[in-house]
Amino acid sequence: EEEEEEELGVVYEEEAEADDGDGTSEVTALAFDGDHVASGHACGAVFLRNTSRTLMRASHEGVVTGVHWEGGATAFSASADRRLAQWDVRTGTRVAALQAKRPILCMDVCEGYAALGLDDGSVCVCSLSPLRLLFSFKAHDSPVSAVRLVTVSQLVTSCAGGGVALWRLDEEEGSERRLTRFDGHTAPVVCVDGDAEKVVSGARDGTVRVWDISLGRLRFMLQGFTPYIGSVQLSSSWLMADGTNNAVVMMDFSNGEPAEEEDDDDEDGDE
User: Fold this and answer.
1) Who has greater pLDDT, 260 or 245?
2) Gap between the Cα atoms of 72 and 221, Å rounded
3) Most buried among 70, 111, 123, 263, by the most CB within 10 A?
4) What does the pLDDT read at residue 201?
5) Whole-number Å distance between alpha carbons of 78 and 93
C-alpha cells in the first residue's frame, strides 16, 4: 500500500506525475549555476536543463516557489502545495517529500540545508540529506515573502508586512544576539540578501535598503525602483537589483559612508 504523507514527515513514493505542459507558463522560481538551469512554474511544472537539452520534467500540485539543483542526480523544489520535494533527475520521479503545515512561499538552500518561508509567518529549517525537518519557528506576523540562508547559521527573512529580520541560528533562543529586526519598508519585502556586515532588502515600496548588522539600523536607502522589483544581489562592495523598468542595475558603494537616519519632524536638522 502507498504510504500516506504525514505533516512535516518524509514520504517515499514510486512515481510522480509528470507535467504535460511545455514550460511556457510563468516562471516563479529559478536557479542557475552557469551550466545547469532549474525552473519552477505557476502551473506547478519543474524543469531541469543543461545548456543543450531538458533533462527532467516533473510537477507539483501548486505554484512552484523554490528550486535547487547543482547538476547532480538529485534536485529539490518547493511549492504552495506545501511540499518540499526531492527528485531523481534520471527518472523524473519524486523519491521523497516533506509536507509543511502551511503553503510554502519561498525557499533558499545553503550547504545541504534548506529554509522554507510559510504563509503563516513561520520558517522551517530542514536538512536535505536525509530530507527531514530540523526545527521551525514563528518569524513574522504576516506571510514570509523571502528567505536567504547567508550561511548555515545566518538567516535573513522578510514578510508581506514590510519587516526584515536577521536570525543567528547558532545563538540560544532568548539570547539578545539571536534576532535583529529592521523596520522601515512600507510595503511587502520581496527579496533579501546579506553578508557578515549588512543585510539588503527590496520591497514593493520602490526602495532597496541596506542595513548595518552591528548597528541594527539603516545604512543606505536607494530609491527609484518600481513595485515590480524581484531580486537583489549583494557583495562586499556592490549591489545588483532589478525593478528599474526593463533594466538591471549595478551600484558600487565601496566609498560610501553609512547613512544617518533622518527625523522628518526635526525642522532644524538637530539630532
Assistant:
1) 245
2) 40
3) 123
4) 97
5) 15
User: Do 48 and 38 meet the contact criterion of CB atoms below 8 Å apart?
Assistant: yes
Do 65 and 85 meet the contact criterion of CB atoms below 8 Å apart? no
How far apart are alpha carbons 152 and 90 in whole angstroms?
A: 29
Lookup result for grid cell 550561511: 151
CA dist., res. 74 & res. 122, Å (int)? 26
Whole-number Cα distances in Å, 35 to 47, 49, 72, 152: 14, 9, 12, 25
Q: Which of 47-56, 163-172, 180-189, 253-262 is the least confident region?
A: 253-262
Q: Which three cell numbers stand for residue 171?
A: 545563538
Residue 230 grid cell: 524581484
pTM of the predicted structure, to 2 decimals: 0.84
Residue found under cell 566609498 = 255
- Please, are residues 42 and 25 in contact by the beta-carbon 8 Å criterion? yes
- Per-residue pLDDT for 120 more than 70? yes
E-state strands within 104-175: 104-110, 113-118, 122-128, 131-138, 144-151, 154-159, 164-168
Do 194 and 166 touch, CB atoms closer than 8 A?
yes
200: nearest Cα among 154, 134, 148: 148
Average pLDDT over the chain, rounded to an integer: 87
Classify burial at 168, counting beta carbons within 10 Å of its beta carbon; exposed 0-12, middle 13-18, buried 19 or more: middle
Distance CA(38)–CA(72), nearest Å, equals 12
Q: Residue 236 is placed in which grid cell?
A: 562586499
What are phi and psi for residue 137, nearest 5 degrees?
A: -160, 160
Cα–Cα distance for residue pair 87/51, rounded to 1 Å: 20
Look at residues 199, 182, 190, 188 and name the one whose alpha carbon lies nearest to residue 229: 190
